[in-house]
Design brief:
mainly alpha
Length: 544
Amino acid sequence: MCINSNNIAVYFQHIKDYYWRKISKSLTYSHTSTMDIDGTAESELAKLQRQFKIMGRDLQAYNTRAQEQIRKQRQEVERLQREQEELQRSLQMYENVSPRQKGSEDAQRLCADLGQVEEELEREKQCQNELKKEISDMEKKLTELRKGTVDTHKSEAQRTQKAIRTLENKLHRATICFNEEMTANKHLREELENLQVERSSFQKLYHRLVKELQDIRKDIGKTVTLSIAAHDARVEAQSKITMMKEKAVKDLGQHNAEMKEAEKVIAHERLLKEFMTTKCSERTGQDEDQEMGRRQWLKEHKLTGSGEESVETLQEVFERIQAVTGEDNLDMLVTRFIQAEDQNFALFNFVNEQNTEAEALMEQINQVIYCPALTCMLTLAHPKLFINTYHTQESTSSSLAPCFLTGLNSILSKLECDRSVLEDKLGSSAGISESNIMSYVGLVEEKTNKLLTLQAFINSKVTSQNGTDRLTTLTTALISALKSNLCPFCLLTGCRQRLQSRRPEESLPDEEGRPLSQDELCERIMKSVSAVKNAMTILCCYLS
């Protein structure tokens, strides 16, 4: 509720003036009247006293109603202040959370209404203070009226009626204003209720949006983590692919270089085989001519005489071999010869196996030569397959490495190579290992070169001298080989498989039951040297 305090104050002021004038007139009239109108004055005085009592009661009633209205207005002011605080908090909350446009306009309008209400409250407080002051003045005037004079009854009645009409009009206007204020307060309450409902819905929407924002931020964090991991995996995969491509290019270059080297070695071996085939054919022709001459000579001079000369010749050869080897026991010499022959046969089998593997590798090399582009594409497209192949080859090579080291050590021991110089050069006597294997292979190659030189020397001497000179030259070569730490039995023994695979016409039917002549012994020695030379060449190619 809200009452216009100015209208109420004017209303009470008119009432107080009216009764004051009326009482003053009544008192003045009672003192100035004559004795004729004593009865009328007394009746008028009694009437005025009754009216005064009524007005006093009315004044008390008005005071009570005014106090009640003031109390209610204070309660309404306190309630409006609380609502104002709530609205201010809501307004601050709306400003902090970026409210909608309609909410901001409503808040501004409510702030303006609150300002008006506060102004009206201030005016009501001032009116209350004025009413209190007027009530105190009224009480003072009432005490003075009991002592003072009053105006005439007629003029007082007119003024009273006029004041009553004026006060009624003002009261009507005040009632209209009061009703308007009540209507405005009702609209404000409705708007406040609507705002509270909107505030609750807005709070629910705000909390839901905050929750969705947190979920979105979590999803963004997970997505960023996954993208970083995918990027790292992509970079790692690209680096691995680049490394695999570089390795494939390097392997292809190394493979091409190895193929070129293998082609060179194969061409060299082919030329050497053709050369040796030519030499063997020439020697076979010469040996056949010599054999035919020897057979003719045996027919002419009979077998006994030639047998004695063969025994003498064999005796001379045995003495020379004894001088070279220093062995007097013929059985021991034969045993050593057989052992060396067995060793040579084992080595020859090993060489044959290596030749078979070399031929298989050559077939693979030819296949790779015919499709290098396909190999390169496969290397780039399937690096894991080639990596597994390389790992398999590495494991196979690692398993074969001890056998290869053992075989190389056995070859060095059989060749009786001097390892002291190489050990002094390496600064270690630990033996053959993967780090110094090429040095020992070089030592084998050096011995092989000596054998080739010896074979060329023997070929040059054998073709230009007769049987005796050839035997002497061969013996000298054997002695030289012995001085160079080369086993003479390696030169005297041939390849058992090659001897067994000779043509039937190259052997005599009674060869096992008779001694050999100088030409036959020279022929066998040359064949043995040629076989050893071929085996060592193939072995050196394999080791390199």
